[in-house]
Amino acid sequence: MDLSKEVIQYLSKEIETVTNNMMVFRTKIAFAVLVGPFLILVSFVVSARGYRIWLSPDWVAKVAIAIDAFC
Q: Whole-angstrom Cα distance, residue 17 to residue 23?
């Protein structure tokens, strides 16, 4: 048997595994970065329920759009 072919085959599988794990990690981070600001905004709205909101809706919408664009 040719040892170099076995080593290349093993390393190919190892590279594929590492690449898949890295892509899963990146997907999870991208999801958290995309959804996180909206969760924070929702928590602010829920905590402000029942209180008088001094911010105009236009200002809140601009901030939400800016956060979304940043993400």
A: 10
Query: How do residues 35-56 score in pLDDT, each as one tens digit?
Result: 888 888 887 777 777 666 566 6
Q: Could you tell me which of 68, 60, 67, 62 has the C-alpha nearest to residue 44?
A: 60
Domain count, the chain: 1
**Closest by CA position to 37, among listed 6, 65, 5:** 65
Residue among 40, 18, 34 at smallest CA distance from 69: 34
- Residue 55, SS3 per DSSP: coil
Domain range enclosing 19: 3-70
What would the two tokens of residue 63 be? 């901030």
